[in-house]
Amino acid sequence: MKSPSLALVVIGRNSEKQLSRIYTPEQKERLTKHIDEFVYVDSLSTDNSVIFMKSAGFRAYTLTNGTIPCASIGRRIGTEVCASDYILYLDSDMEIQDIPVFFEEIMAAIQKNNIDGCVGSVMDVYPDGGLRSRVRKVKNMG
């Protein structure tokens, strides 16, 4: 059975500093083993976020003036431009930690349960070193 294809859609605004910290050449190489499409949707940044993400190998799309910048329109654009079976949406400050385990678990869940989508846990890391773990609770619709 062929593995489903997976796109990564990163959504951001004025995030060059975070993006350049996360999407290093080494991290991009690790991600390329699991991701088929790399897309960045920019919410009218005034910094070099778009230039950086293009240099990191992402296809970049920018909202047009007059569009209200928000993550939901970024997800819509990402959905419209991706051809992959599944899409992983990340905000520009989100980073995947244990990449091989993360993708192994996601693909196993998709193939075992024939699911349409999922959400997961998030660990917020604050500048003062504080941590907060969050898990979105959703009803199983399957």
Number of strand segments: 6
What's the end-to-end separation, in Å?
22 Å
As a percent range, the share of helical residues equals: 25-40%
Order of helices and strands: EHHEHEHEHEE
Structural class: alpha/beta
Mean pLDDT: 85
Q: What is the CA-atom radius of gyration, in angstroms?
A: 15 Å
Shape field? globular
What can be said about the biggest beta sheet?
Answer: 4 strands, parallel
Verbal overview:
- It is a single chain.
- It is built from five helices and six strands, in the order E-H-H-E-H-E-H-E-H-E-E.
- The protein has helices spanning 16-22, 25-32, 49-55, 71-81, 99-113; strands spanning 6-12, 37-42, 59-62, 86-91, 121-125, 131-135.
- The protein is α/β, with parallel strands linked by helices.
- The radius of gyration is 15 Å and the shape is globular.
- The longest helix has 15 residues, at 99-113.
- A four-stranded parallel β-sheet has the order 3-2-1-4, with helices on both faces. It has a two-stranded antiparallel ribbon with strand order 5-6.
